[in-house]
Write a structure and sequence with these properties.
The chain is of the alpha+beta class and about 90 residues long. It has four helices and three strands, in the order αβααββα. The mean pLDDT is about 85.
């Protein structure tokens, strides 16, 4: 009987490398928008293992946390546009 991927690691040891789809889902967007963020340099690209593309969870989380917050202490959070990152004018897939 072959073990499934999620059965190989105990729940106390989450993976440190994930797929493109998982990297996008981790930050709450689709893979196409994630690709645009990689191209813009706001999200990390993959590492290569035997020809397979694998994204580092810590790098994805760190890049996400470095993105600017919407709003500021001087204005209403819903009135101020966010500028200067790969999410500008991007369409969600």
């Amino acid at each position: 009987m072959k073990l499934q991927k999620h059965e190989v690691l105990p729940s106390s040891l989450p993976p440190i490398g994930i797929s493109r789809e998982q990297a996008a889902a981790l930050i709450g967007i689709g893979p196409t928008l994630y690709d645009k963020c990689v191209t813009a340099g706001t999200m990390p690209g993959p590492r290569v293992i035997g020809g397979r593309l694998v994204y580092d969870v810590e790098e994805v989380v760190r890049a996400f946390r470095a993105l600017p917050h919407k709003g500021s202490i001087f204005g209403d959070i819903d009135d101020e546009p966010v500028a200067g990152n790969a999410f500008d004018d991007a369409e969600e897939d």
